[in-house]
Every structure is written in structure tokens, then in C-alpha cells.
Amino acid sequence: MMTGITSGTGSASCRFAHYFVVCGLDTKTGLEPEEQAGESFEQSPIRRSFKSKVLAHYPESTERRPFNRDAVNMLCMPRGLSFRTQTDDRVPFFHSFTVSQDDGTRFYGFVQTYYEEVTSAQITMAMQTLHQMHRVEHHSSSSSTSSSASSPSTSSMDSLVNSLDESDADSLAERPLSACPCCATGFFQSAQDTLYASKALCLLTPLPFLQASRHFLTQLHQAVAASDAPPLPLESYIHNILYEVPVPPPGRSLRFHGVQGPIMCQQPGQEELPLGDYPLGEAFSLLGVENLVRLLTSVLLESQVLLLSNDYQRLMTVAESISTLLFPFQWWHIYLPVLPASLHHLLDAPVPFIIGIQRRDAKLFCLNPIFQANLCFVDIDNHHVDLPEDLPLFPDQLELIQELNEVLLRFGLQTHAGATITNKPDPAAPPCLSSLVLEDLMEDRRNGNLGREQLAVLERLQALARRCGGTAGGKTLGRAFEEEEEELKEAKMNVQLREVFAGRFATLFGRYEEFVIHSAPDLESWLSNREGVSNFDKGSFLSTQPTQHLHFLSRFLETAMFSSFVDSKVLSRWADRDPIQRVFDRRLEKDRLYDTFEDDPGNRRYRKCAVLHESAQAVERRLLKADHTAIHPHLLDMRIGQGRHHQGNTQTSTGETCMNTTHGLDPRKPVTSPETTSGLDNDLREKYSPGRRSLRQSKLLDPSPSAVTQTKRGFVDGLLRECRLKTRRMLMERMGKERAESSQVEAGITGLQENTLIHSICVLLERTWAHGLKMKQVRNTHKHTETHSKTGHNLFGTREYKCKMCLSGIYALSMETVGKVEGQALLLFLPLRFVQTMNESLSEVGRARAWVYLALEKKLLSQHLKLLLTNQDLLRQLYKPHAFLLCEEEREQFLFHLLSLNTVDYFCFTRTFTSISIPYRVVIMPMKKLSIAMAMSNPWVCVSGELGDSGIRQIPKNTQEIYFHCQNLGRLSTLQLGQENSGLLAKCLVDCVIVHNEITGHTYRFPCGRWLGKGVGDGSLERVLIGQLVSPGGEEDSGRWAGTPPEQGSPPQIGLTGLSSVQVQEEIREAVNNLVKHFHKAEPERGNLTALLCGEVGLVRSLEQLLLHGFKSSRLFQRSVFIWDFVEKAVVSMETADQMGDLQGSTELCDSMCHYVNAINATSRNIGKEGKFQLWVCLGVRDQLLSLWLPLLAESHLAARLYEETALFRDRAAVHSLSRLLHTLREFPIALETALVKGVDL
User: Where's it found, cell-wise (predicted)?
Assistant: First the structure.
């Protein structure tokens, strides 16, 4: 076509297209087999793939977008060159691709592939020779030979093609044709057959102008294939689109001319959604609404997404549809909707990706995608989506699906299970109109130049053409109008579907700016400390969201996608806002003016998108009437790219020439794509980009061995870095929470967020263990079983699951090494056996993660994995040399980071698997310093936790401990210890009670320090004790415990207080303040309320200190003082005064206090005086009466008789202040544990 290759001048960024490329067969280099295609040499040569080359590209290069020859060639022809004969199907086909730049921007490629007759005698002879060699070698021997032995190497083929003379070829051609099916199919004889080779015409654009590029390439190909020459040389049209057709200004449309007709393109306005030209309706038709929403959910949570189809364009359509629906978020990981065969190693990438492969490539690479836990496998042709394990629902998913269905129905698409049915006609070739009359009519209609009468005539012509099938230039007039209307309908449907999703994100993140943390004083300090600083208050944000949305949102907030969104907001303080974020923020500002949501964000109702009609109208206006017209193609007096050209000039519909600056587009400034970040140079942009990639996108597309090695090395470094960041984040968040719990300040993370972080660790482990795993080991059940039959049994059956190989390996290793490291092997085996016997309906992936949760809670995760990785023979058997687990230095660092998690306590297994049966061991510890033997009559215990209680468990006679199974109690909080009333001899001074969880290894200590028995202490036969976690477990190799600060336990028995009045008041204020902060936290974040009420620094103890301050007592025999005695006497005094009519104050208040005290005394439980006082305080707080009772007690005549004048209880101001302080608790719903109020009917 064109031979001159010259460079263009001027800015390429404002041009419609950057490059025009031709790829195909290079007759100079001959036939080189495409080894990466992995095809068997048993195939006929004409059915094999050969290397393609870039034959020409224009211009040579541009300043901001250097031409990547290898990448473009691979993506234009992903499987290389293919050949056909005259008997084969040679229908042209179209596909597109996209390439991500190192700075996060993308450019798009649009490819028209057709078959061109091979005119080179050398190529024809080479194909004939290869076929004859194949036929001879196939029948030369009946013995089995390997594929490599039966085919020449690349170098031998090249030498054969270049050195073979005609006589040799003729002698081979004279051999008889075999009748076998292998040779009869795809047979080629140069004397009888015509050879065709695939050829690709490609247009590279900065924006996804799919329809316009497709029309241009189709018209260009038809001109190439046509027998009649076009009006102008083809070079004129190529020069025109490269140099004279600009990008339409924002909010405007542009008409330019192809070879056979006008072509329209448009760009959304600055307040509209970014350009998205790929047909969303087709994506919904291929997958169905529900499947596409689930796929979008997987992408939002940054799962690995693998697309599979026979059609490259379908892969691109689905991938780009999902990408456009992400607004205002962006995908920052590997994005290759069309994966060339030479880059198949990227399927082994242990990072999130969106990759599309052709179906036959899936068979070639021996993929087993359904066995990867974090992989979303999409079979487009069969309308099937296999979701990742434990994928949450998208917020308001059912309502969203219903709204999407309504939009689709308005455009004639009816949804059914798994797919979408439409009545639209089969897609045909884009319009190629040569009739000048029809062209003028179409243009005048778009430009609005037809009057009312002319429009009516045109409509009648259209109707007549539909009825009669009239033709114009080989195409029916009706068909031309149908295609135009179909494109308009598709564009309107696109924008409405996108608006629905944009509206959902606006609802979910409408107030995100309130939670962005701006802590850095300048840009450099923020960039240098960004990994250690949180830019978003995730806990506070989640506390404002509906409960049913938390599962999705908590995981989404941890993605790089959301992190980059927040980073961009922070950066807007020093640089221009990202264009996408600017559009989103302006929409939020507009929505707030008309916000009709309820004040309670947790009860927000689903609101449908209200701008569907408005957005569709904007698109319709631009497509029906062109705002600008580009310069028409014209004869050239120079080669392409030489001489003077009109850069960025357009003409209005009236024929006037106007520069883009007239409409806000300065040709001196590059037009940035939607992904471009404004205001930062490339170095800073890459420094802040959320990927912060150790891998450069340009390197991913380099198939050279050195680049592939560097890419694989980058994956290893990335895994290690991700492990470091995740473990650091977990430590910082958990330690922050523990400091908050110990000092009773606001915690920085909820339990849900903690589970989310631990889930991310599981995903990281799965990706790490899957990296470099030999696929042949898991290709089928038999091979999988054979692999492990040498080392042990597979723990979870014979189903192949590559990410779970670590569990099978651990089991096998523990069985092999029992004799060598018996203790460690047993330590590994017991948790695995327990997970295996769990009755939960878990998948194998679920069991694998359950084991990780349990190992983490037991603080044995790093130790387990370290033991496994000592078996180098097993690792080399299962993994490829580049696998992460075979990199010794990185592996040790990885284990070290996991070991750091042992410094804090986790309850991920306990809180996740709530219905399993757990064995507990309870031991009663008497006071050691006393020599009196323990004497208890039928003692019993009842253990309570955040998930329930064990019920009463009778302790066997003559023992001090009990072992029992019950449903998981969660984190333990209280314990009831009691005995029967069997006389004065049944008594014991109990030091504490120890409870041990036999599975997780957690040990709880319930301090007591009191007598249990009649006639001693307060005469209690039952105690309610508050527990504290004292042993994190699994710290055998650490030397000493360095876990969390001790929690509150039961308060010790106290006599007359020695605290000053200031100290007593401070304790009360602190106790009340802790309760207030407890209820101001999000519900998943709240701690143990019982500990705040009855613990060592709880409200009960602080009030007891108050009532003991200045209390008079007989000190002759050091008799214990119990506040309950004073309360009982005060009640008796009130009742007596009431009977005599001398009662002062509120009768109802006195009656309520007397009623509660009498009910407590009447309970069948013998909880002693301390227990009764504790119960009285708790009931008073629950029923909002305590703040009224205390002033009533202080005003009684007993207070003056029993308290010193300096006592706080006789200070009216102090009592009034206390009453007001307790009054603040009345607004909170206080729910008491059953262990506290059991047996009291109040």
C-alpha cells in the first residue's frame, strides 16, 4: 500500500489518532513459527501460527507516545499470522485492544484483519515445502516420536526456506497425497491452491473511539479489496485522520470523512461521565444483568478476573464495559483484555489482574481456573461466571438489578436467567454509502439543515425504503437509517446504564470527603510518609453505613482502587484534581442541594437515578447534529507526515474554520485522557500512583527472556512488599485498638475491619502459594493424587485446588517428619485435624482459610509455614524455579513479617466459626497461702461469652476441674461459680478460676479473692466473676509473653477506702466516661459492657468506693463493712416512715427503691451482700433509676448517723454532681448479661 515511512510533526495528543499501523507477513524474513502459540507440530503447517511483523506505521514516533513495535504487533495479531486457501473461510473480522502506560493512562488500538493473497513465490514455496516435510515425517515411521523430534527448529526452518532450490521442492511435491485425515485436512499444493495470509490494519487512538475507528477501518479495507479505485489515494485518507482530524472538544461532536462516507464521533462534556464507546448492552446480553453485577463486584474487590471467549472483541467489550462502570474508581493492576500467546506467563501473576484469553489458549496453557480461590472466571460464550470464594453482595444488589432491567427493557432488551435476549437485527458491516444524494441527506439531517417539510419527505422515503427495500450504493436506504438509529440507541443506553452505577457510587460515598484525613503539611512530607499514615477514617465511615453493606464496604476500603481515590483527593491540596474525581465531586455537590435522604444513613432507602433522560438527551443532541467538521481528505503532494498540515483545525456546520481554542481546547496543550492525573509531573505521578508498581506496564508487554525474567522477579518483590505492608497495617490497627481498650479511648478499627484485614492475609497466602505452582500437578484428580501418594495423604480429598497445596504439603510433611521433629509435627497436625472434623458446611477453600484463621489465633502461623518450607524436595517437585517459595531470602523475610503478628491477639477463628463445638477446661484455684483444704459441696460453674453461655456444669466430686464441650462461646466475659448450701463446713477461699480453650489455646483468668460459703465473708454461695485473657497461647518459641495489656477482672474485696475524695470522684467520672464512649462506638467495635460495669475500674467498684468514703464502723474486731447493709437499713427506714406517714420526698421513688431491694433479697440465688449491691447498681443503671436513688439515700437520716461529716456522701454538691453525671447514662440502652440478672424478676 504505502512504502514511505516518515515522521509527523506537531502535538499528537490533540489528534484523533496517534498511529496507523499495518501488520502482516514480512516476505523478507520468510516463515518463522510462532513458538509461543504452543501448537503441536502434528498439525498441518497451514493450520499453524507464524510470526507477524509490523510492515509500516505512521508516523515514525510521537513525543509523548513512543511507538512500541513489539507490543502493537502482538496485540494486533495475538496468535500471529494465519494462512488460508481459497476453500477456507476468509471473512474479515474486527477487534480492539488497550495498552496501559507506566503513568496509568491508556491508549486504544482498533484492528481490522482480513486475508490477502500471497504473491511471493518464496513464501508459497516455503509453505509447500513445510507441508511436504510434515507429510513425509508423519508417515516415515510408525513408532511414536515426540513432537519436538518430528519437527524442525525455528533456525532449521529458516535455513530450509532460504536454501531450498526448486528441484528439491518439485521432488517433494511429486510424492503421493496420503488419504489420512490428518494430511487431507488443511492440505496445500501451490499448483492448485491460492494461499492467503492474514493482514491487520490498526488505528491507535488516545480515547476509546470504537464506532468511529471501526467505520474508518472498515471503509478503508473495503477500498483496498474493491476493484474500483477510491476517489483519492488511500494515503490521503490516512494522512487526514492522523493529522487533520482532531479530538472533539468536550461536549461537542465532530464529523470527518472516511473513504466512502462521513463518520461521526463525540466527546462528553466536562460535567458528564467520561467517554465510554463500548456497547454495554452487548455485555449485558452476553452475561446477563446479575452475572455482570457480580463480575463488577469481583473487580471492585480486586480479585483476579480471567475472561474466556472465542472472539477477541467480546473479551474487550466485557473488560471495557466493566472498566467504564467503575467510575469514579480506576483499575490500577494488570489490564490485558486481549492476552497474546507470547505473554501467557502473566497468567501466573500473583497480583490482581483482568486478563482475557481465547478459548483455545486456555486449553494450550492447561488452565484450571475454577480451582483458584480469588479468581473470577468468566466464560463469555456460555454466559457463565464462576465467582471467587466468599464474595459479598453489592450494596442493594436486588434493587440495582431491577433498575438495570428497567433500563434495558426501555431499549428492547429482555433479560432472562444468565443472559439477555434482544430483538435487534444481526450486526452488519458499518454503512459504506457511495451515493452522494444519500450522503447529503444523511449529513443535512444530522446538521439540522432540513426544514419541516423536508424532514417529512425524508421520513416517507425512509418508510418506503423499509417496505420496498430500495437500494443506494449497494445498501438499502432503510438499512442505513436502521444502523444510524441503532448506534444512537446504543449510545443512549450506554450512558443510562453507566448513570445507574454512578448514582449508586454517589449514594455510597456521597459524604466521603468528611472522612478524608489531611495530616501532611506539604506534598513532599506526604509522599515520604504515606505508607505509615492513614488518609481515611475507615472506622467512622463504616459506622455511618447500613449493616447489610458493611461486608462489601469493609473489603472495598482496603483496595488500591479506593486508596488511589483518596490519595487523589489529598493531592488536590497541592495539584489540580484528577478529572474523573472532579466530575464525581461536582455531582456530589449538586446532589447535596437536592438531598432527600433520611437523617439516619443506616436506614437509607434505595433511590433510582434521576438523570437518565437528561444524560441521554445530551448524547442524542451531539450525534444528531455535528458541531464541527474536520478538513476533508485531499490530494497530497508529499509523503505522509511531510510538509505543512493543518493541525487541529475544524470547520463548523456553516463552513467556517475555527480553532479548538474557540471552544475551550487549546491545541498547544495536550488533551489528557480520563486517567491522566493533572498537575504533577510523571515522576511524582508514578510516585504517588496507588499501584506504586515495582513492575512497569511497558515491561509487561516485552516478551524477551530478559524482560520476562525481570517481570517474574518483580512479582516476587511485589509479594514481599505486600506482605510487609499488610502485616504492618494489621499490627498498627490492632495495637491501636488494644491501647484504646486498655485506656478506654476510641478504638481505630472495628471487628469487621479486623476480619477484613485477616481475609486479605488469607488471599495473600493463597496467591503466594499459587505463584509458580506447576500446573501439571493439579491438572486432574489422578495426577493430584499421585503427587501426594509419595509424600502422604491429601488432607481435604482429591479435588485439585492449587492455592490449597500448602495445606496438603503441611499435612504430608508432618506425617513424614514425625520421627525427626515429633513435637512440631504434632503441633501442626492437631489444628489440621480439628479443621478437617469441623461440622461446618465449608468448601475446601473455606477449610483452608479456617486453618489459617486458627493458626493466626494460636500464634503459630509463621511456625507452621516455616516447618513446611524446610522440605526443599517437596517444593522443587511442586513449583517452578521462579516461584516465590523457592526464593530463599524473600521467603525468610516473608516468614519474619508473619511472625510479627504474634505480638498481638486475634480472635478471628473464634468470631468467624461461631457454631462449632469447642472443648473447654475449667480449673478452680484456691488461695495458695492458706493451708485450709478446699471443701466445697457440689460446686458448679457456668461460663459466659459474647456468643452465649455453657449452662450449669457440675464439677465432679473430689476434683477442682471440669472438661466439657459446648458451642463456641466467643470471647469469654463472665463466669458464675457456686455450690450447694450444705452447712458451715462447705466453704473455700477462692483465688481465681482458670478457663482454657483447648482449640485456640486462649486462657482466661477470673479473679475472685473471696470466700464462697455460709458464715464467711458476705455469706455468698455464688459469685459472678469477670474474666481477663492472660495467655495468648502458642508462644513457645518467644521466651516470654509480650501480648496485650491485661483486661479488667473481678474487683478485689475492699474494706474502708483509703482514697481521697478527689480520687474517688475521679474514679467515678472515669467509669461513667468509659460507659458513654462505649455506646458512642459502632456496635461491632464495642467491648465488654459487663467489664465496664462490674470490672476492676467499673461503675460498681467506683460507687462502692464513694459509699465507703467516711463510713463509720466498729474497728475493734476489724469486721468487714458491706454497703448492702446500709442500703437495707435505709429501705427499712423508708418503709417504716411510709407506714407512719413521716415519709419525705417522692413516694413513687421510694417505692421503686424498696421494690428493687426487696426483690433482690427475695431471689433464690445466694449471691451475698457484695453480689446484691452489684445487682442493685446494674439494675438501677439499666432502668435509669440510679441517678435518682443515690440522692434519696444521701438525704436519709441514716446517712448522717453512719457517715462522717467529711464523707463525700454527706456533701450535697458532690452528690448532686454525681446524680447529674449518672443522668447522662439514661440515653443509652443498657442490656445486662443473663449471668447478672438471672433469678430476679424485675
Answer: Membrane
